């Protein structure tokens, strides 16, 4: 499958926009996965801790590979390298902590997913990255549909074509209008529907954002998002982008250590369809482009938003207000 070009193919530096890709799966532990990535894309395997590795200096940059649970890895807030050198007691405490986390990882391997965090890849090279998905399948990696317990996903982090608030709002509106179609195309797994990781946006927020009179500045856009979406678990997670654009914002969620500021949209909806031949990042990128295409067509975007509001906005408050106006006009 060939990656299709976005409406804005290049970034501000004149280079093809890049896409970060994250994939979760079972059946292949981190060490074996790291070796597989190295075989495909070069680089050097670096063991950061027993269940967290990276492939450094590979094609496109560094790949991160780890068990996707914080409890399988040493907590850096509890590791003091200077105290480790100076205190026997501190050495014992830190070694106990690290060994405990290693044992937890050993126990949960196979129950929690292995995750690959790919470096940003130019959109026009995503088909080369798809070799990774073929290799994972051939080496026994299991995706979302392999078990009812597997709520695994693939995340795309497309580099935003513009950081102007008008572009951010257009893409957010386009996503809200396209989300239903995307869910139908992806056939989101029932386990992932039950789990909170890719929840849809609340209707009240959708109606607010699609209102043609909604024209926020960045501060208002961020504040409104946080008011209605006080969570990381949205199908289109805007927090990494907002944390990048507004690093001084006081909301604790934007300072959460699991929110990594970056100038990208964080699209969390797709399943990890490793059992499906030909599936990969390219297919999900081509689906995502429905959002970017709509965002780049303001007249169509406005028309679809108006149609959505006509179908879904409650009519009774409008009728009641009109009745009150007529009543006062004749009093």
Structure description:
The structure is a single chain. The longest helix is centred in the middle third of the chain and has 22 residues, at 165-186. The strands form two sheets. Strands 1, 2, 3, 4, 5, 6 and 7 form a seven-stranded antiparallel β-sheet that branches. Strand 2 (44-49) and strand 3 (52-58) form a beta hairpin. It is globular, with a radius of gyration of 23 Å. Helix 5 packs across helix 11 (298-312). It has twelve helices and nine strands. The model has no long low-confidence stretch (mean pLDDT 88). The chain is an alpha+beta fold.
Strand content: 5-15%
Low-confidence stretches: none
Calculate the mean pLDDT score and round it: 88
Q: Provide a count of the helices.
A: 12
Which oligomeric form is depicted?
Answer: single chain
Distance between the termini: 68 Å
Provide the structure class: alpha+beta
| Percentage of residues assigned to helices | 40-55%
What's the short story on this structure?
It contains twelve helices and nine strands.
């Amino acid at each position: 499958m060939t990656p299709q070009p976005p409406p804005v193919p290049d970034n501000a530096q004149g280079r093809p926009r890049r896409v970060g890709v994250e994939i979760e799966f079972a059946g292949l532990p981190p060490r074996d996965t790291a070796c597989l990535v190295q075989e495909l894309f070069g680089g050097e395997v670096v063991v950061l801790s027993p269940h967290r590795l990276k492939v450094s200096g590979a094609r496109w940059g560094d790949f991160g590979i780890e068990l996707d649970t914080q409890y399988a890895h040493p907590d850096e807030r509890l590791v003091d390298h200077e105290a480790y050198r100076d205190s026997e007691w501190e050495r014992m405490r830190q070694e106990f902590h690290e060994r405990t986390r290693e044992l937890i990882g050993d126990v949960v391997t196979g129950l929690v997913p292995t995750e690959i965090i790919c470096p940003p890849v130019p959109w026009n090279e995503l088909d080369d990255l798809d070799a990774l998905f073929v290799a994972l399948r051939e080496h026994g990696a299991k995706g979302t549909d392999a078990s009812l317990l597997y709520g695994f996903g693939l995340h795309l982090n497309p580099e935003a074509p513009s950081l102007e608030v008008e572009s951010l709002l257009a893409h957010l509106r386009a996503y809200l209008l396209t989300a239903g179609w995307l869910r139908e195309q992806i056939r989101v797994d029932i386990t992932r529907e039950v789990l909170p990781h890719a929840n849809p946006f609340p209707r009240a927020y959708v109606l607010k954002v699609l209102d043609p009179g909604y024209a926020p500045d960045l501060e208002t856009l961020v504040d409104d998002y946080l008011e209605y979406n006080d969570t990381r678990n949205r199908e289109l997670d805007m927090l990494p982008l907002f944390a990048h654009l507004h690093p001084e914002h006081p909301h604790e969620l934007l300072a959460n250590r699991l929110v990594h500021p970056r100038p990208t949209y964080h699209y969390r909806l797709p399943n990890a369809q490793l059992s499906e031949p030909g599936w990969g990042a390219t297919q999900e990128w081509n689906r995502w482009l429905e959002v970017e295409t709509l965002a780049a067509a303001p007249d169509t975007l406005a028309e679809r938003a108006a149609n959505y509001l006509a179908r879904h906005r409650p009519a009774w408050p409008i009728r009641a207000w009109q009745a009150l106006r007529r009543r006062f006009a004749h009093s």
